[in-house]
Amino acid sequence: MGLVAPGLLLYLVSALCHSGGALRLSQQTQPHVSCLPRMGQDELSTSKPDGTGDAYTNYVAQPGQEGPVVTKSDRLITNFNYTIRRECRKNKKKKLPVGVDLQHFPLSLSVIHLCLATADCQPCIRVCAKLYKAGRLQLRGIRIEFLQLSTNNHYSLRLCSETKAQNDDSWEIQYDCFPADAGHEVIVSLSTIPDYGVQVCRNHTVDEHETDPVFNYSFSLMKKTVSVSVLPGPSVTARLCYQQAFTCEQLGNQSYQQIDTSHSLSAVLSYEFLLPCLCLEVYYSKQDSSRKQVFPFSETEEAYNADLWRSSRFTDWSDEFKDQMKVDFSWPCSRLKPSVSLCWKENEHFDSACLDIANSSVVASGMTYFIDSVDVHPRMCFKFAYRNSSHVWCPNRRDWSVDVEVGVFQLVLQFKSYIPASFSATLCSKNGHDCNSTYLIHTVTKHSTSDTENIELILPFQALGSCVQVWRSDVLFSGKHIICPNYDHGRLGLLVLASLSATVFIIMLLLLLKRCITRIISAPPWRRTILLIYSPDSEEHNILIGAFADFLRVELCCDVILDLWDTGKVAQIGIIPWLYGKRELVERESGKVLLVWTKFSKVLFEQWLTMKLSCGSCHSDPHDLFSTAMACLQSDLKQGDRSKDYFLIYFEGLCEINDIPDSFHTIAKFKLLKDLPDLVCKLQNPAELSCWLKFVIKFFVRRIAQSERSKNLRRRVELSRVRQQSGTQWEEDAAELELISSDVSLIDQSTSSSL
After folding, report:
1. What's 137's DSSP letter?
2. What DSSP character marks residue 52?
């Protein structure tokens, strides 16, 4: 910035803008030039909605732009490479070439607000210029001069081109900006380097910046209108527009209205689409008035629904014969960025559901979205989503098709493809929208586009009614086509043959079932000699063991060996001879040893291990069944093949799988009564039990589960579980005394019958 004497300055202004060698266009007749777009700035507006005059805008200065330093290039936008110097090379005066008229070079001024971090916002003059055919003039640069008349503030900016301009080149310049004071007149002149003796001048008066108008508004979502009311005063302009990155795009005529406060203080504006970026601007109608903006629907949920997508445009840019989907997307709210992924439609109907494809992130380049290695198909779609709303766009392109024909116990797939591709297919069973497959996958490949013949794939099917899943297997993202052929069409003989075969098979199956059921009723295959081993937890636990033994004896017809039922023999010969004798009996009769395990069993087992390590083979209690059984079990586990004679039983709620020692890993374990069907199957020798008879066993197990003894056993287990959790003594619940007595009587009765 430089200061000169007022007299000399006025002389320079007069010489530049009123002499015959210069051109001074009036403010009304100056040609309009559009300012270049500034990327990264938050500008509210660049022109009035009716297109006349200039308006205030806000320009937020970036770091390094503090103060009116014209040598800062980050305030300058051009379409040519330049440097800022005091003088440019070849700055001599030249004669204007024939046919070139500098008098029509556009130069326009507009008022914006410069807001620095260290000061309040102030008016500022933006300069926009365009020079046509800069190459013919052999321009080396441009000089811009600024002068505020009242204060003699003067700025000069010289731009020197780094490269020589071509004949058809047009130079465009936007400078932000020359600081000015409100209420003062400024003059901006533009001249060329080299000097052709012609200068273009503009003068502009910066009006006093008044306060924003005070207004109220209301809206009707049903009528799609916004009502604006203002206070008495100067005339006010109200308009609706869609706020974009740099401008606010005006809607139709019904969205703009000038309020003459002498006749009315309100206006009703209408809009087409309810969008979150719909902006209401209210400002004084005079030139260079500041605009106040509000966004009525930015937090309204209805603004993020169907209108958001109805106002959008989709343009398919996918390359033909290329495994790529590409779409150009645009909508009025360009500052909002949707999330985009792939989805696969259940069918080609317009309103069918579209299932998301995992890990299908779509690459975005500006507002163009694309993804490679994808099966381009009308059912393979882009899903655009923003907040709680989404929209599906599908391409209108099909690169391949398949037809299915039903043969004799086979399906013939005919593929027609316009591109080289690999296709896979497998049989499946339809289950709702899914098709479950456990069959082999068959693949076929087309290697060249020159091959016009169809490729064929044959699938042998195992059952009538099977469907086929078909998909492209040479791309990362593809959907599975589910095709269910019509087996009835032209296949009457095949259906008759299949029906006869099914009838014969069903008759034979019923005969075999009859024999099996007769055999099971006469002698259940799971009937076995069972030795029952348990830990002496408590009196109620002994009653539970008695109920379980009675269940095995009555419901499963097993020969149960229980020390509680053979107390006389145990007292006569001792627990050790009795246990080993019964163990040998179980082995001779191919029976099983059932070990009932509880949390207390784990404690006794650890004590037994500790005692064994401390005193070797000594036995502390000759009447202890559990310790004797553990010694016998450890001996059998060391032999390996004898561990198959043991089953470990634990009741739900009384023991967990973690309570069972790791050394018992070779013993089969059953959780009752959940695993009762498995226990019944294991009690039968696998060599004698056919696989097709298992459903018969399940039927009888279901019947057994409804029996009275089964219900009694369940009550016993539940009562023991409650007692174990509460920690109360067995005799404290007086309401259960009658049940305890009945169970004790049951044990005594069973003992008497066994004796």
Report:
1. T
2. -
Q: Distance between CA 594 and CA 615 in Å, rounded? A: 28
The SS3 assignment for 284 reads strand
3-state secondary structure (DSSP) of residue 737: helix
* Nearest alpha-carbon partner for 292 in 55, 41, 39: 55
Residue 36 DSSP SS3: coil
Of 73, 55, 36, which Cα lies nearest the Cα of 174?
36
Beta strand pairing call for 185-193 and 171-179: unpaired
Asked if residue 247 lies in contact with residue 42, where contact means CB atoms within 8 angstroms, the answer is no
Asked if residue 138 lies in contact with residue 92, where contact means CB atoms within 8 angstroms, the answer is: no
Q: Is the pLDDT of residue 475 over 50?
A: yes
Task: Read off φ and ψ for residue 721, nearest 5 degrees.
Answer: -65, -45
Q: How far apart are the first and last CA of the chain?
A: 125
**CA nearest to 280, candidates 266, 294, 291:** 294
Q: Which sign does the torsion angle of CA 342, 344, 350, 352 carry?
A: negative
Question: Which DSSP string do the residues of 444-483 spell out, in sequence order?
Answer: EEE--SS--SPEEEEE--SSTT-EEEEEE-SSSB-PPEEE
Identify the pLDDT of residue 342: 94
User: DSSP characters for 652-685?
Assistant: BTTB-GGGS-GGGTTSEEEEETTTHHHHHHHHS-
Phi, psi angles (nearest 5°) of residue 708 = -70, -40
Q: Which two tokens stand for residue 530?
A: 């069972």
Separation CA 723–CA 728 (nearest Å): 6
8 Å CB contact between 61 and 115? yes
Give all domains of the chain, ordered by start, each with its CATH number. Answer: 6-205 (2.60.40), 215-304 (2.60.40), 306-393 (2.60.40), 400-483 (2.60.40.2150), 523-754 (3.40.50.11530)
Instruction: Name the one residue in this structure whose structure tokens are 């206006």.
Output: 267
What DSSP state is assigned to residue 723?
A: H
DSSP code, position 540: H
Residue 752's pLDDT band, with cuts at 50, 70 and 90, is: very low
Say which residues have a Cβ less than 8 Å from residue 234's Cβ, sequence separation at least 6.
213, 261, 284, 285, 286
Residues 6 or more apart whose CB falls under 8 angstroms from that of 8 comprise none
| Angle at the Cα of 614 from the Cα atoms of 608 and 618, rounded to 5 degrees | 70
What one-letter code names the amino acid at 676?
L
Question: Do the beta carbons of residue 565 and residue 754 sit within 8 Å?
Answer: yes
Phi, psi of 564 (to 5 degrees): -65, -25
Backbone angles phi, psi at 584, to 5 degrees: -65, -35
Q: What's the rounded Cα separation, in Å, for the pair 325 and 383?
A: 12
Closest CA relative to residue 46, chosen from 111, 108, 94, 116 = 111
What Å distances lie between residue 600 and 119, 607, 634, 659, 677, CA to CA? 82, 11, 19, 9, 26
480-508: buried (b, 16+ CB within 10 Å) or exposed (e) per residue? Answer: bbbbebebeeebeebeeeeeeeeeeeeee
Give the pLDDT confidence of 12-67 residue by residue, as tens digits: 444 444 433 333 322 333 334 444 443 333 332 222 333 333 333 333 333 333 33
Neighbouring CB atoms inside 10 A of 692's CB total: 11
- pLDDT, one tens digit per residue, over 593-635 is 999 998 888 888 888 888 877 776 555 566 678 888 888 888 8
**Distance between CA atoms of 438 and 420, rounded to whole angstroms?**
28
Q: What percent of the chain shows pLDDT beyond 90?
A: 11
Instruction: Tell me the HSE value of 682 on the side-chain side, using a 13 A CA sphere.
Output: 19
Judge whether 375 and 456 are in contact, CB under 8 Å. Answer: no
Q: Which amino acid is at 160?
A: C
Give the amino acid at 389: S
